[in-house]
Amino acid sequence: MNPTRAILTITGSDGTGGSGVQADIRFIRELGGVAASAITSITVQNTLGIQEFYDLPASTVRMQVEAIINDLQPQVVKVGLLRRIDVVEAVADVLRRYRPRHIIYAPVLESTRGERLLSPEVYEAIERLLLPLCTVVLEARHEGQHGKANQLSSAVAVLLNRGEQPDEAMRHARELLDELPAGYVEPTGRSGELYNQFLDTVERFYHRYADVAFYAEQLNVSPRYLGQVTRRIAGRSPKTIIDERITAEMVTLLTTTTRSLKEIAHQLGFSSQAHLSRFFKKQKGVSPIQYRYKELEVKG
Fold first, then answer.
1. What is the distance between the alpha carbons of residues 231 and 251, in angstroms, rounded to a whole number?
2. Of 42, 166, 222, 253, which has fewest CB within 10 angstroms of its CB?
3. Which of 71, 59, 53 is nearest to 12 (CA)?
4. Does the pLDDT at position 274 exceed 90?
5. Statement to judge: residues 148 and 245 lie in one domain
6. In this structure, what DSSP letter does residue 128 have?
7. How far apart, in whole angstroms, are the C-alpha atoms of residue 246 and residue 280?
């Protein structure tokens, strides 16, 4: 086979570059191959996981695949993420018609975060329509280390394109992967650093601001991303963390000082004593006055 002929990858997009079409193209090129692509799904994701899928229509996927096959005539095709039955049908129909020499399928059912990527009905369609056409089916059922299945299947594709037989290509591909440095395709996010910065910012401003948008602006991130970070690391929303810090300070002021509720409300940025009382009762289940008297009785 001609090693300079393009290898077609049909899969989803991963904006982090750790998996999906971006990783396929990069790894194929690093191994000396030529990559072409057809995208099946666009994801909204980062190192914390996938937030949204936008699956492309079957007709759009079909046109992408046919455009590449008609022009570049790839003899090795790698298939990854297919999330719709009609897309499976379209891809299988095109591949059946044009008969590339090798078709590789890497069944990725779940992401590294345990997110379900396709339904059992879609996988049944894949087993029925696509697998009979394949030269190689990898055994990976989930991504394991982010993009590991992509690396293996991409390496196999390059080696098949060089003329190796499937068994030889699989063995050789595993050897190539063993030589990769640890964390080769693992993108590094800022979540841990950002979480600590958020806590520091809360400590600085909790007595003046309780709005999540304020803290997100201070950290130059979206409120949505800040929420992803705190839920992943602490299992709590940013608002919960802010409110807990404010409540802790209220408890300290109620139990260690003789300041009035009006003074405490002003110190902590509440619009009124009534506003403070409503907030505290929602957090603790009792009014500030009741809480103060109860604590004094306990200490008395």
1. 25
2. 222
3. 53
4. yes
5. no
6. I
7. 9
The answer to whether the beta carbons of residues 136 and 170 sit under 8 Å apart is: yes
> Is 196 inside a domain boundary?
yes
In the block, residue with structure tokens 């008297």? 293
* Residues 270, 158 share a domain: no
What CATH number is associated with residue 218?
A: 1.10.10.60
**Selected residue with higher pLDDT from 19 and 239:** 239
In single-letter form, the type of residue at position 146 comes to H
pTM listed for this prediction: 0.73
Q: For 281-299, write each residue's pLDDT tens digit.
A: 999 999 999 998 887 777 6
Same-domain check for residues 217 and 115: no
Query: For residue 80, is it within any domain?
Result: yes
For strand 7-13 and strand 136-137, is the pairing parallel, antiparallel, or unpaired?
Answer: unpaired
Q: Is the pLDDT of residue 213 over 90?
A: yes
Q: Where are the alpha helices (DSSP H) in 220-287?
A: 223-234, 238-256, 261-267, 273-284
Sheet holding 102-105, edge to edge: 49-55, 35-46, 7-13, 76-79, 102-105, 136-137
The total of structural domains in the chain comes to 2
pLDDT higher than 90, residue 275? yes
The answer to whether residue 48 is domain-embedded is yes
Q: Is residue 186 a part of any domain in this protein?
A: no
Residues 6 or more apart in contact with residue 178 via CB below 8 angstroms = none
User: What are the respective helix, strand and coil percentages of the chain, to the nearest 5?
Assistant: 55, 15, 30
Q: What angle do CA 121, 123, 129 make, to 5 degrees?
A: 105
Residue 68, exposed/middle/buried by CB under 10 A (0-12, 13-18, 19+)?
buried
H runs (alpha helix) in 13-165:
20-30, 58-72, 85-98, 120-125, 148-161
Residues 151, 269 within the same domain: no
Q: What is the CATH number of the domain that holds 101?
A: 3.40.1190.20
Q: Which domain holds residue 201?
A: 191-299
